[in-house]
Amino acid sequence: MLTIQKKTLMLVSALAVVGAMSLPLTVEAQTTIDQVTQAGEQRADAGAADQQRVEQIADQTDTLLSQFKTVTKVVDGLKIYNGLLQRQLDNQEAEKAALRDSMDNVALIERQILPMMTRMLDSLEEFVELDTPFLLTERRDRLARLREMLDRSDVTAAEKFRRVVEAFQIENDYGRTIESYKGAVTIDGNEQEVDFLRIGRVSLSYQSIGGRYTGAWDPETRTFVQIPPETYKSNVAQGIRVAKKQVAPDLLIVPVQAPTGEKL
Predict the structure, then answer these.
(1) What is the DSSP string of 54-76?
(2) How many domains does the chain have?
(3) Which residues partner with 217 through β-bridges?
(4) What is the pLDDT of residue 15?
(5) pLDDT at 28 over 80
(6) Under a CB-based contact definition with an 8 Å cutoff, are residues 122 and 168 in contact?
(7) Which end of the chain is less packed: N or C, by CB atoms within 10 Å?
């Protein structure tokens, strides 16, 4: 009986010892689990931070790539624009070279053109004096003004040449027009006011105011001669009205120098 009590006491003691030994082991295990959990959480936080940094770097990379593409387009546009400017500069340089050549030749051209214009006026003046004597005062005055202009330093050579050519054009136009104007002719020693009728350069006739005298220019004698009134009086009067645009154009019979050299 005593032996059973001892055994029971020994068992209770063993259990107490085991219980006493198992309590500290449980606390230590719990501490280890907390540490592991905390380390895992720290690693998770570190991973999230790393992921955030990766995303930031990716965003920065996308931004830099977009900026690079934009800058590349700007650079390409600048290259095209610079090429255009370079072509314009090349053209301007070519124009400058041409202008320099022209300026170098200006003095030479002026030295050649001024004597030429003088000769042109000489020939035109001679032509006017030998031509049918219509509007002589007007035509001579025009030549005198042109000669005066040639001596002026404030008129360019181009303007002088234009005016001389214009005078030649005016003389040329006389050969294609019909005109009537007032003037005076010496008839029987007396100066008479008359209406002149010019038809191109082929005929220059006149009729006195009232129609008493009718005459025409004779190229052979280079004088005005009277013509039979019954022959040309009405036709010259009609031609004067046509030239003044008082009547419609019509067929006219006027005195013309015969090609055989016969007098009017």
Answers:
(1) HHHHHHHHHHHHHHHHHHHHHHH
(2) 2
(3) 224
(4) 47
(5) no
(6) no
(7) N
pLDDT in tens, 170-202: 999 999 999 999 999 988 888 999 999 999 998
Q: Do both 106 and 160 map to the same domain?
A: yes
Domain-ending residue, one of 154, 174, 194 = 174
Q: What is the dihedral of CA 8, 12, 18, 20, to 10 degrees?
A: -160
Asked if 117 and 161 count as a contact pair (C-beta separation under 8 A), the reply is: yes
The two tokens of residue 213 are 């005298």
Q: Tell whether 193 is covered by a domain.
A: yes
Structure tokens at 29: 């295990």
What's this model's pTM, rounded to 2 decimal places? 0.57
Q: Which residues pair with 238 in a beta bridge?
A: none
Q: DSSP per residue over 159-176, as a string?
A: HHHHHHHHHHHHHHHHTT
Residue 183: half-sphere exposure toward Cβ, Cα within 13 Å? 20
* 3-class secondary-structure state, position 47: helix
**How many Cα atoms are found within 13 Å in the side-chain-facing hemisphere of 145?**
10
Q: Are residues 141 and 105 in the same domain?
A: yes
The answer to whether 215 and 225 have CB atoms below 8 angstroms apart is yes
Last residue of a domain, one of 174, 192, 218: 174
